Amino acid sequence: MKILQVLSSLRLTVPCLTISLGFAIDALVLPSLVLTTHIVFWGVIYYWTTYRPDLISLLFIAAIGLISDCITNLPLGLTSLVFLLTYWMILTQRRHFYRQTFAITWLGFVLITTMSSVLIHLLSWLSIRSAIELVPMLLGILLATFLYPPVARSLVIINRWIPLVR
């Protein structure tokens, strides 16, 4: 019985692990775009916030943002602010995406990803006065848009494995 309880508890950490994995993929595989574009991360955070917001810690999201700021040399807290605002946008609009067709959910993802990407580019421009590079931003949004279906499909399979918290 104890082993089942431990396994059940470990399963509850899966969203944070997949969020970390999405962030790591962005930082390691797509480093030239990661300065202000989080491609896989947006998909993972969108999915878990839409379907299992009870398993995501705001402190964890803020910590990932601080790590991103350290990696990209942006002012500490800038990315955390955008990540937390993105989480809030998804959470407040989740009733429009939850239990909808995939097309509606995908459209919501594209809208929120676009807003978040534009916001992080504007804030980074205001803070470090570097030129806003539209091509990497648009490329990041396009990549995130086209990578969301396979990311979401994998997370659906993983989500079925996680017990409901009562």
Q: Mean of residue pLDDT? A: 86
The number of strands is 0
Specify the structural class. mainly alpha
- What about the largest sheet? none
Element-level helix/strand string: HHHHHHH
Helix content: over 70%
**Assembly status:** single chain
Secondary structure elements and pairings:
Layout: H1 2-11, H2 14-29, H3 39-51, H4 58-72, H5 78-97, H6 102-128, H7 134-161
Helix pairs in contact: 2-3, 2-4, 3-5, 3-7, 4-5, 5-6, 6-7
Structure description:
The chain is an all-alpha fold. The protein has one domain (2-161). It is built from 7 helices and no strands. Helix 3 (39-51) crosses helix 5 (78-97) and helix 4 (58-72) crosses helix 5 (78-97). The longest helix has 28 residues, at 134-161. The radius of gyration is 16 Å and the shape is globular.
Salient structural properties:
about 170 residues; mainly alpha; 7 helices; about 0% strand
Short note summarizing the structure:
This protein has 7 helices and no strands. By secondary structure, the chain is mainly α. The model has no long low-confidence stretch (mean pLDDT 86).
